[in-house]
Write a structure and sequence with these properties.
Layout lengths: L10 E4 L6 H15 L3 E6 L5 H14 L3 E7 L2 H10 L4 E5 L8 E8 L7 H14 L11 E3 L3 H9 L9 E6 L9 H7 L4 E6 L21 H9 L4 E5 L6 E4 L5 E2 L1 H15 L4 E5 L4 H9 L3 E5 L3 H11 L3 E3 L5 E3 L5 E2 L1 H15 L3 H6 L5 E2 L3 E4 L3 H11 L4 E3 L4 E4 L3 E7 L5 E8 L2 H16 L1
Parallel strand pairs: 2-3, 2-4, 3-6, 7-8, 7-9, 12-13, 12-14
Antiparallel strand pairs: 1-5, 4-5, 9-10, 10-11, 14-15, 15-16, 17-22, 18-22, 19-20, 20-21, 21-22
Helix pairs in contact: 1-2, 1-4, 8-9, 8-11
């Protein structure tokens, strides 16, 4: 086993060189010990290596004396849903998210979608697997097969309010798990949608473009299809459907942070004075719109484990991340990409406006997007930036963020590689480009 498969929030590596059946069996045993679990829900995505890894994960869990509710193929939002709808101590899925088909891995959460990351149990699971140390159990757990999908569609379908409105949408699943979200549009609300599918074939799983809407190159075909089909909205799911990107009716990409602002607008109509979290890379427009809509806007650091923890501490209604993760209290602070789509469609229904018109109000500033730079001396560079921009307002919530009246920037170090990530925003495109280039000259030295 390559111990580097244990990441900050999940387990991920190339099959079978980094992760194989034997490793997954041991991980199953270690999960039971760490969660002190009596019953776990277990699912998987559609990768070719999924069935055998899923089987060995379940064998490891049941050999440790824990019962399994076998959900078979699910999306990650379904995983979180099962963790609070079923009588379980947690939920586990064999998935490698948006990584290519040769990868596989494991996502774990405790009951009520509480994340298990490097600082909340994942490192302990890793250490148990490396040491080959597991509690002995004489009694094996049972396996019960269960289909969570009908309950999932029913539960989140209640949040849709489309009336008699008819939408034409293009949905790109990249032949990955977003396909299991399609019944919302094609069956539950079939009268409201004309659905044009792009790469929605699980029989040809992971044999399409990268399932990662944050990589805008993957959206080009969707953009073109939305324009030629004169669709109202384009929707792109990532590999395990816990992230989503959107294209407006003109074919333009809607920045994922601005989606946070639009969703906040809708939710605050029925939940005034609620707290909404936005990650610190987001446009200032997001904070402004939350406050204009009667909400309390709080910044949060990047990463689902941190965000979910802050949502619990502050009783936040919703949180949005620049990477297209949208967290809803309705799913115990877990992501629900389709609920993000429904919320936008609800807003389009209520206002009778096109999505581009609704987003226009949030396009107030010029944002650089996230720019990565390979840097060997990360701490030295951060110290230089703090010194040069010492007259600005400094926050060290996540890396460094320095605010000025007309512009701001954030620089964060990657946990896994020698990379610094820059986000910069200003009042005008000219100022943003000037500041971006100035910052990159220091970072890249």
């Amino acid at each position: 086993m390559n111990k580097e498969i244990f990441k900050a929030y999940d387990i991920r590596g190339v099959y079978p060189t980094d992760i194989d059946e034997d490793t997954v069996y041991k991980i199953g045993r270690a999960i039971v010990n760490e969660l002190n679990a009596k019953t776990l829900a277990v699912g998987r995505d559609a990768r070719k290596s999924g069935p055998s890894l899923h089987k060995e994960l379940i064998r490891g869990i049941t050999d440790a004396g824990c019962n399994v509710i076998d959900l078979d193929m699910i999306t990650t939002p379904m995983l979180y849903f099962s963790s609070h709808q079923l009588d379980v101590d947690g939920a586990v899925s064999v998935t490698a998210s948006h990584n290519p088909g040769e990868y596989n891995g494991i996502k774990i959460c405790r009951k009520n979608a509480q994340p298990v990351g490097s600082t909340s149990g994942l490192n302990d699971i890793r250490d148990a697997v490396i040491a080959n140390k597991f509690q002995e159990n004489t009694e094996k757990g049972t396996i019960t097969k269960y289909d969570i999908k009908p309950e999932y569609y029913e539960y989140f379908g209640k949040f849709a309010d489309f009336g008699n409105k008819k939408f034409k949408i293009v949905v790109d699943c990249a032949n990955t798990m977003g396909v299991l979200e399609l019944p919302f549009y094609k069956e539950k609300f079939a009268n409201n949608f004309e659905v044009i599918e792009l790469y929605c074939d699980l029989n040809n799983a992971y044999n399409a473009h990268e399932a990662n809407p944050l990589n805008t190159d993957t959206l080009k075909e969707l953009q073109e299809k939305v324009k030629t089909q004169k669709a109202d909205l384009g929707i792109a799911y990532d590999g395990d459907a816990d992230r989503v990107g959107f294209i407006d009716e003109t074919g333009a990409i809607i920045p994922m942070d601005l989606i946070t602002g639009l969703i906040a607008k809708v939710l605050l109509k029925t939940n005034p004075n609620s707290t909404i979290l936005y990650d610190l890379r987001s446009s200032r427009a997001v904070k402004e719109v939350i406050e204009e809509s009667g909400g309390i806007a709080h910044e949060c650091r990047v990463g689902h484990a941190f965000i979910k923890q802050q949502m619990v501490e502050e009783n936040a209604l919703f949180a949005g991340e620049l990477s297209g993760h949208y967290y809803f209290q309705a799913n115990k602070n877990g992501e629900v990409s389709t609920l993000a789509a429904f919320t936008l469609l609800n807003l389009m229904t209520q206002t009778n406006q096109k999505i581009s018109e609704l987003v226009k109000d949030l396009r107030r500033y010029s944002h650089s997007g996230e720019i990565n730079s390979q840097v060997n001396n990360k701490e030295t560079v951060l110290a230089k930036l703090k010194e040069k921009y010492s007259d600005g307002k400094l926050s060290e919530l996540d890396g460094i963020k320095i605010d000025y009246p007309d512009w701001w920037f954030n620089v964060r170090a990657s946990n896994t590689e020698p990379v610094l990530r820059l986000n910069c925003e200003a009042k005008t495109p000219e100022m943003m480009e000037q500041k971006r280039d100035e910052l990159l000259a220091i970072i890249r030295g």
